[in-house]
């Protein structure tokens, strides 16, 4: 019988000869590593429950905050337009509409490289790099439509991996029966943060208009960008795969992987081998089509409402402040 003081087995895979040829750690983002997986029968259900509570304390609040603030970031363009952005930058014709269109074009283009990075390198580091919010901070310094278009394009590209990244985290940390509850919780932050942040932005805009030192729409960009930047720092230390995060002990890392072994994702949480059989199998699953059409049909009206609702209230005769407040209830849906 092994001594209790014996050193635990190595938690990483042996380094191969090929690994010495190129050390990805020099890039600042380590490749995905594996960890020796514990057997599910090594631990009791009470051990799993205790670990799950700890996982929830770290992951759920972080994902709730970052998902909510990222959603607020991309829809803040309508609030900024309400406070004079279009007039100050001289937008005319379809230029404002293009600010939303270009966001989703680059969002789509960036999906493939971003999801590849999420699987190839340290998940927490990649998500942090994508959420730094430099683009949103720079929007506050824009002086014309071309600059704004370029930054909105970059913003769409860098926000495209938040949802897939968080879904990947949920799948790696939780059992299949727990996915829906956790995913719905952090996704519900969209409405919560839109209401909360809009009330805060209302106060910030009031102060900016009263002082007159800087345009209200610029202060909105600075506030949201700064808030996202602070949140991304927390993500650096909290988010990641079970074998990578610093807030679990080595034993807890083994237990976390053993706990979700029934998901049949295997020890290697990021399988790099492409298998066309899996692709064809997914196309035979009706849930794929239900999910696609549900998302597609929901996004069409959502994009128009979030972009033009604030300006629409103005056309009905409400002033800027009233238009902002009247838009709050719809976010509680």
TrEMBL record:
<feature type="compositionally biased region" description="Basic and acidic residues">
    <location>
        <begin position="14"/>
        <end position="28"/>
    </location>
</feature>
<feature type="transmembrane region" description="Helical">
    <location>
        <begin position="184"/>
        <end position="204"/>
    </location>
</feature>
<feature type="transmembrane region" description="Helical">
    <location>
        <begin position="127"/>
        <end position="146"/>
    </location>
</feature>
<feature type="transmembrane region" description="Helical">
    <location>
        <begin position="288"/>
        <end position="314"/>
    </location>
</feature>
<dbReference type="GO" id="GO:0022857">
    <property type="term" value="F:transmembrane transporter activity"/>
</dbReference>
<feature type="transmembrane region" description="Helical">
    <location>
        <begin position="216"/>
        <end position="239"/>
    </location>
</feature>
<dbReference type="InterPro" id="IPR036259">
    <property type="entry name" value="MFS_trans_sf"/>
</dbReference>
<protein>
    <submittedName>
        <fullName>Major facilitator superfamily transporter</fullName>
    </submittedName>
</protein>
<keyword id="KW-0813">Transport</keyword>
<feature type="region of interest" description="Disordered">
    <location>
        <begin position="1"/>
        <end position="31"/>
    </location>
</feature>
<dbReference type="Pfam" id="PF07690">
    <property type="entry name" value="MFS_1"/>
</dbReference>
<keyword id="KW-0472">Membrane</keyword>
<dbReference type="InterPro" id="IPR011701">
    <property type="entry name" value="MFS"/>
</dbReference>
<dbReference type="GO" id="GO:0016020">
    <property type="term" value="C:membrane"/>
</dbReference>
<keyword id="KW-1133">Transmembrane helix</keyword>
<keyword id="KW-0812">Transmembrane</keyword>
